[in-house]
Amino acid sequence: MGWTDRHFRYLLRLISKGAWLYSEMLPVQTLLRSREPAKRIDFHSVEHPLALQLGGDDPSQLSRAAHWGWKAGYDEINLNIGCPSPRVLQGRFGVCLMEHPEQVGALVASIRRTVPIAVTVKCRLGFDHHVHPSFLETFVQTVAAQGCRTFFVHARQAWLDGVSPKANRSLPPLDYESVIRLKKKYPDLEIVINGGITDCDEARYLLTHVDGVMVGRKVLEDPLWLASLEEAIGIDRSPMPSRMHLIENYGTYVSHMLQSSTEPQLSMHRLFQPLQTVIRGFPGAARIRQMVCQAGRAAKPNGCAWIDRILEQLSDIAPQSLLALEHAPSPSPSLARIVRVERAVIPP
After folding, report:
1. Has residue 171 been placed in a domain?
2. Cα–Cα distances in Å, from 23 out to 16, 164, 297, 298?
3. How far apart are CA 273 and CA 173, in angstroms?
């Protein structure tokens, strides 16, 4: 949460024209309490295909939020039943709902009665003592009976007792084979695998057994890796953009947002934050990050000038040979979520 907002998704769309992008998970009560819910879920038209990811346990609230998402133009509603954070558990939604598949099925059915677009579910293999394969199979079978045809499965259990959400991204070990077995058992369902995918060859192997891969953290660290992933799995795409070209195009977007946005509370920090992911790992990146942070604290009218300064500084400190590279010299290994064979993805 906190990264795949409309600005970062715009950056990703500059890299991939066909990847399915997912919003950060939005707790439905947060949306319903918002003074301007339409602005909370607003997006740029170029972001399509795009899914709105919601978290909640009340069918009427979820249906209302899903209806807003559909009217706003989202292409899919994704129900997050995999998040292990304490805030989610206190609200009695997220991964703990896997223990109640009938309730999740009722949530899916309620949303499907409200919107004509696809309703999908993101989950884990299980949580705490619910570790037997039959637990996941029962969950999927029950929810699928209510019309859900696509499941995004994070290939590890969630440990809720005394383990932080951050630790839950690396513990316990990944278990891709359990997701592959799930696909074999339910061949008519679309099963998308998620968790720890940082290698193109690994993604290519997984796609021989499941319908798609979902990544995220790796793309947060090196957005242009998404282009390499698409090429590796055979997605027809335009030539890979250079890092400098990407920054220039995103700078044009920033300028447009600053000049055209009617939002008095437009967050400069959120607007400039995606640039930090593009320059990570390059010589002088610390200085550029400092400038990005300063831009994020600047007054709105000064934003365009900051873009020019950042581009100037980047040209001065980084050799053109490096700026033309598709990836940072030393990307750090990590995970998250993004592709789906015919569509690539991004959630929290």
Report:
1. yes
2. 16, 22, 24, 26
3. 31
* Full residue range of the structural domain in which residue 177 is found: 6-232
- The burial class, CB within 10 Å (0-12 / 13-18 / 19+), for 111 is buried
The total number of structural domains that make up the chain: 2
Residue 45: DSSP 8-state:
G
Tell me how far apart the terminal alpha carbons of the chain are, to the nearest angstrom: 5
**247 lies in the same domain as 223:** no
Q: What is the pLDDT of residues 245-272, one digit of tens each?
A: 888 889 889 888 888 876 666 788 888 8
Give yes or no: residues 46 and 183 share one domain. Answer: yes
Residue 265 to residue 276: CA distance in whole angstroms: 21
- Residue 222's pLDDT band (cuts 50, 70, 90): confident
> Could you tell me if 15 and 154 lie in one domain?
yes
> Structure pTM?
0.87
Residues acting as catalytic residues? 83
CA distance 73 to 315: 39
